[in-house]
Amino acid sequence: MGGWIGRLLATACLAWVLTTVSAEAQRLNIPTPQLRLAPQNLNLPVLLSADQVTHYQELGAVAATGSVEISQGDRVLLADTVSYNEKTDTVTASGHVSLLEPTGEVLFADYLELTDNMRDGIIQNIRALLNDNSRLAGNMARRVDGNRKEMSRGVFSPCALCPDNPSAPPLWQIKAVRIVHDEEARDIEYDDATLEMFGIPVAYLPYFRHPDPTVRQRSGILAPRIARGSDVGEIIGVPYYWGLDLNRDVMLEPVIYTADGSMLIGQYRQRFGNADIDLKGSGAWVDERENGVKIGSKNFQGNVDALARMDINDIWRAGMQVQRSTDRLYLARYRLGNPEVLTSRAFAEGFQDRNYAAVNAFAFEDLRANQNRSQTPLVAPYALYSFQGQPDPYGGRFTVNANALSLSRDVGADSRRLGLTSGWSLPYTAPSGEIYSLSAFLYTDAYYVNDVPNPSGSARPSLNGATGRAMPQLAFNWRYPWVRSGGGLREVIEPIAQFVAAPVGGNPAKIPNEDSLAFELDDTNLFRPNRFAGTDRLATGQRIDYGADFGLYGDGGARSSFFLGQSYSLQRDPAFTLGTGAYGNLSDYVGRLIVSPSSYLDLAYRFRLDRKNLAFRRNEVAVVGGPSSFRLAVTYVQAARNADLPTLNQVREISTSASLRLGQYWSTSGSIVRDLTAAEGQTRALALRIAYSDECFVFAVDYSRRFTTNGTLKPDNTLFFRMYFKYLGEVDARGPAIGN
Asked: Is the preceding omega at residue 31 within 30 degrees of 0, hence cis?
């Protein structure tokens, strides 16, 4: 491993040097405006104030001493002693000299001599504080046309000086025989320059330049991206950025994979008055593979990620996103991301008062291993409408939710749906403090389906044709919070009960379950009238939900709460399968425990207990603790197998993460995920990081290991590092990525 790490570091240093030779690229974060200064009016009057002013009429000169201040427009000169010769239009200043420029920069000097309305001149021992607190200094400087400083034996650094030892060298600085700050071109140029870190020379550059702090956009070479992959070799990418104008830019990044071909990544962005577009994509000429093995020929692969959005008016907006890849493993193999599913979408949506409407179309590309793409659905259209009425004189409120859906597959069930859910709710708080809520709903749906699997297992394997349902539902909720305060502590006990009534069997066999999969009873949906997330499945029959919430709340912010609840159904609802926790008449017990005694500790525990033997069917534990300088988080999840997802086995997993701040600038963090289903356990993911970050320099090293196999991609190690020098550029080993 040491060999390729050495080559990687050497390549990074060389790439940084080559980049900084013309490190002038800056990306604009559209639509951030670019500030331009108004031209200086040279005919403005000069205002002078001082402790003592002497006018030598014969010589045409004025001498001022003691707290001298001379201003002309936005330019202000301060000094102990200033003299002005009217005949030569020359100003000389000495003693604690400072010159405030219209740009916000401040020049400090021991002595200066200025002419032409203080625009030109010479300055001894110049020190310049730029408008972002960067510093320029030199032995001698010439000021030309009021917008150009030419310094000899100069030094530049954006780093803050050590407050305990200001004379010590900053973290990094550039020393040069000649430094030119061109305020009109907004460049800082260096001749015969040396980069020093902690006062030690680390790189020599005969000439280079970079934008000054006022620049927000500049065409040129961006920071190189360097990494290594076990199957593609070293990865070297050098992006080039074109700032076409304040509203448009382009970036192209050629990338070389030393063991697997080359790639071109591109991005185009433009912002209009009421719209914006962001077009990203890549194309690669890489080694062709069969079952993960190179076969000696090349083929083209690529991806596209395009986004467009437009505000049509004050109510409506529309947009489109296209995400596609030519190969399932393309993005993961070439370090362009690792999504499981690519989603393309077109939409239009409107907001007005209490109305919301949307029309969507979705196309998915499944990148997961062992997934049959022919079963991936196409959803077009999917339309929604939602209305929430004003409260009536009694506090009741009507709601309407409508939807229309067309879902199709090459292989599998197709369905078309028109749905309407009408609702009305009436809250009431009794004088005794009891809280009541009465709700009524009417679910109406019409479906036309093809190739829906027949659950009865009869000779007819699939169901086709039209179907529908109209199901009313009534829910009555009661809760009674009891509160007791004293000794800086508030105790709350709140029993909760709910009765829900609906006809039995509101889910015809012809209706496919597309939007209500993987249901599991928990504390968040126990009291929901329809417990399913979507509308393909409805909770039917009559049931009683009951539970209690206990809470302790301290005046200092400490809090603890515990909830336990269960449900009883008068008839077994066939919509809930074994493993959901709601199968049968009595449901499993669900609950949660939250403990937060201080800002240094937070504990959350959610669980589901078997109704018969109190065995744990699901456990979720999350513990986060420690001061801001050291935080530790542990999460444990255990869940039994769910019959709604036969391809998903039981889950038993623990993940741990920690972050440690080492002083003001150094930090380290790490995380590990372990799968505990096997007897000996198995690590699924591991990540470590150490980083340094201050106002002018960032350095980070990241190590990660992937333990799982994705198709032909085997487990591997990845080592990333990043060095960033403010204004000079960046070496980034995260691989070729765009838009970061």
From this structure: yes
- Compute the distance between CA of residue 576 and CA of residue 5 in angstroms, rounded to an integer: 55
The token pair that represents 455 in the structure block: 């659950």
Specify burial of residue 333 (Cβ count, 10 A radius: 0-12, 13-18, 19+).
Answer: buried
Q: Judge if the upstream peptide bond of residue 472 is cis by omega within 30 degrees of 0.
A: no
- The one-letter amino acid at 377: P
DSSP 8-state code for residue 275? E
User: For residues 157 and 166, what is the distance between their CA atoms, to the nearest angstrom?
Assistant: 13
Our separate counts of H helices and E strands in the chain read 2, 42
Q: Is 322 exposed, middle or buried (0-12, 13-18, 19+ CB in 10 A)?
A: middle
> In angstroms, rounded to a whole number, what is the distance separating the alpha carbons of residues 292 and 285?
16
pLDDT digits (tens, 9 = 90+) for 156-194: 988 888 888 888 888 889 999 999 988 888 888 999 999
Residue with tokens 């470590």: 688
Burial label for 678, CB within 10 Å (0-12, 13-18, 19+), is: exposed
Q: Are 529 and 500 in contact (CB under 8 A)?
A: yes
Structure tokens that stand for 373 in this block: 């793409």
**Rounded CA Rg of the chain:** 35
Tally of CA atoms within 13 A in the half-sphere of 379 that contains its CB: 20
pLDDT at 456: 72
Tell me the per-residue pLDDT of 308-352, one tens digit each, with 9 for 90 and over. 999 999 999 999 999 999 988 888 888 788 888 999 999 999 999
Distance CA 69, CA 33 (A): 34
- The label of the residue with tokens 């949660």 reads 592
Nearest to 311 by CA among 264, 348, 355: 348
Q: State both tokens at 218.
A: 């500049």
Can you give 364-414 as a three-state secondary structure string? Answer: EEECCCCCCHHHCCEEEEEEEEEEECCCCCCCCEEEEEEEEEEEECCCCCE
C-alpha–C-alpha distance, residues 236 and 257, integer Å: 7
Residue by residue, DSSP assigns 326-356 as SSTTHHHHTTS---SEEEEEEEEEEEETTEE
Q: Are 355 and 373 in contact (CB under 8 A)?
A: no
Q: Where are the beta strands (DSSP E) in 676-715?
A: 682-693, 697-706
| Both tokens assigned to 437 | 């809520």
Query: The tokens of 281 are what?
Result: 């994509």
Q: Under a CB-based contact definition with an 8 Å cutoff, are residues 326 and 726 in contact?
A: no
| CA neighbor of 509 nearest in space, from 460, 473, 476 | 460
Q: Can you list the positions of beta strands (E) in 502-650?
A: 543-554, 559-569, 589-598, 601-609, 616-625, 630-639
Residue with tokens 């700050």: 181
Answer whether 212's CB lies under 8 Å from 232's CB.
no
pTM of this prediction?
0.76
Instruction: Give the whole-angstrom CA distance, residue 167 versus residue 84.
Output: 34
Rounded to whole angstroms, how far apart are CA atoms 555 and 541? Answer: 44
The two tokens of residue 597 are 């005694």
Q: In 3D, which of 737, 7, 740 has the Cα closest to residue 335?
A: 737
Going by the DSSP 8-state scheme, the letter that residue 8 receives in this structure is H
Q: Amino acid identity, residue 171?
A: L
Phi and psi at residue 162, in whole multiples of 5°? -65, 120
